[in-house]
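Dear colleague,

Following up on Tuesday's group meeting, I ran the structure prediction for the two-component complex that the binding team flagged. I've pasted the input sequences exactly as they went in, so you can double-check that nothing got truncated or mislabelled along the way. The structure tokens for the whole assembly follow below. Feel free to forward this to whoever is handling the docking comparison.

Inputs:
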Amino acid sequence: MASLDDLKKRITSVKSTQKITKAMKMVAAAKLKRAQDSAEKGRPYSEKMNNIILNLSSGISDKETAPKLLSGSGKEQVHLCVVLTSDRGLCGGFNANIIKKAKSYFAKLNKEGKELKIITVGSKGNDQLKRVYGNKIIENISFKNSKNANYFDAEKVGKIIIEKFQKEEFDICTIFYNQFKNVITQIPQAQQIIPLNTKSDDQNNSEDNYEFEPDEDEILSNLLPKNISTQIFKAMLENSASEQGARMSAMDNATRNAGEMVDKLTIEYNRSRQAAITKELIEIISGAESL
Amino acid sequence: MSDEFKIEIVNPEKSFLSKDDVNEVVVPAFEGEMGILKDHISIISFLKPGIIIIQAKSGEEKYYVEDGIIEFKNNTLSILTSYILNLKDIEKNKLLELLKKAEEESNKPEISDQLKYLADQKVETLKSIN
């Protein structure tokens, strides 16, 4: 059995860990509020963008001449997967969930004999993927220096993707991120952004007659690259809200576990102290008796 | 009958501006400036760098934009832009910084014609603000 001193040391160490996790939980909660706010504020932009593109693509007459970003390159051989993760750990299953989703997708592609290329955004995803898929990772982007998700970072990623698409380095692009549902649930998502999936649930707004200036094709070819950055930005916002949510609940759990541990250790400490006292008493009494 | 319509300007971070007492908006559309009044036909167009002028009941406002898409439908004008500044709040230093950037961009040798045109537009607009 551990000595009294050892127990005491363990109790203090667990207590200080608890303090850290508690502080991290508070910080995550405060950040979550902000991340959630900006995710909500960013929604109108991506929704409007989506609407306009839907309207445009339904108005496009000739599918043959449509921009490649919309119709695809005509092949499905090379897949580019953009995996968005966080730069920091200690956020529960947040990164692991995205990686799991991505890995199962990679395995499926492998089985079908498709070629795979990976771009990781965020260092945690890179750390986990490079062990197995190290030779497939063509780029690793990290925004450690930017505090919050911002549009310029998203644009940078978007530009890299579009450049690679124009060089015909891949045919289909999918992004992986966590969608924020609530603090305890984040749903890992795989979303295809090239070619764009224009099938929407409600096609009822397609009867609007728009005038275009200049013509549809030109607007579309200008709009689609922007849309890619927008989608990535949306994913980044959702991701940062999810990250804080995941961290908050993970740290909440850790704090509670530490509390339980402290209780258990305190009981053990008190018991062994009592045992030591009893033992000493017995020794004194039996010593006195033997005289 | 009132001749006012609604305008919404959104950028990726937030909803930038929303007004419903607008009489006229002039936007720098890609093929030239375009004035929009109430009951304009539904239109989608995109913007080049320039100044958006909003004539509202509450006064005139001017904004500098670098790019964007506009959509007018059912008397609602939506402007999506990634970079927008209110001319009132713009600072001299910021302006010069933007101008320098734009000039650098336009002087790059490997730039495509369209990008060059956009960068030149940017320079011109920024100079006119100055």
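Helices of chain A lie at 4-59, 68-71, 94-111, 123-133, 151-166, 216-290.

Cheers,
M.
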